Fold this sequence. Notes:
Oligomer: single chain
Radius of gyration: 15 Å
Structural class: alpha/beta
Amino acid sequence: MVGLDLTEMDDHIIEYLGILKDALPPKRIFFVHIARELELPNEITDKYPDLIAPLDENISDDIYFKVAHLFQDNDIDHEVIVQESAH
């Protein structure tokens, strides 16, 4: 399980994971991001209903894009989980 927070530190974590996955090949990797809030304010969604996809989908797509190179030459299962914080 790899926690990502969408900061510059993610690049370092992903780079290190690239080394680890070759040395100790996992069967599956979960990339997890917990967001404080996944809802856009109503005033924005009312004014621009087709502006963007839901935030969780955008975050998930961004993470999948960042880690795609790790899985080009292997068959390691991976999944991205984006959840809203309970608090």
